[in-house]
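Hey, quick one: can you model this chain's 3D structure?
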Amino acid sequence: MHAEYAFQKGELLEASVISSLANTLNVIVLVEYKSGKRDRFTWRFTTVATRTTELFATNRVFHEDGRVLNATVRPDTDSKRGQTYLGLYITPTAESALNYGNLCQGYVYSQHNLSIGEFIESGPGGGEGFLFWNNLVTDAAGNAAVQSTTGLANTIRRIHGFVLLYNAIGVATRTVTVRLRKPGSAPLPTGFATAANAVVWNSPTLTLTDAEEGTQYIGEGKGFQSINDNGTITLSDNTTVPHPFPYTFLESDTGVLESNIGAGLAADTWTWFLLVEEWLDF
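Sure thing. Here's the predicted structure for all 282 residues.
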């Protein structure tokens, strides 16, 4: 009998899951008892999208000693790698999180069932994460500054770049930049009173007047940057105009990536998207 997958009478199976979306999962486990009889344990559950740990156990126990022959976890919800992380194990008590033997552990997503013997570390070390455009704001007023505090519970986020589009309406000279303030998780020292003094990076400035439109874009590939000032495009790279991307935010990170709009009017409209790679992390 393979000791790694052996169980004793009275024990049961449990899944520990963390997810950033409501994901319906099916668990199928084939076991063999010492008597030679085989049995199949199946259960189905739906996670919540709160990035918190949930426990889902079978509703019946093993009635004699035996071993697990096979196990698989199949998602029924359209999902991407990095959105749902699951561990399947043998436990003595339901919802106790006591792990007496791992069967498998890793990310579950469309076109990829998690199978017995598969053990993938959570976070960037385990491979590619969920890559998506994060819509911070759409058609916001120009006098509404928006900031993004990107440290999230049980999550590692890597910001690869962004695109910001601004439409100026009315007489004024707007200045539009993006900045990174107070990266990491260290608190400001006592008496440190000026937030701007904790800024470590400012993007190039986009300057727009009445009826002008403009775009800021920062992407990967040798630090590519672009400013489109009402049709005039200025290109740069990390050699001449450095930027911090890709930038990794841990869950404890209190750093802020924020917009900085000078003289914006309420009639102006602007949109800001971040290119984010995300891993749920136990």
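One thing worth noting: DSSP finds no helices and 21 strands in the chain.
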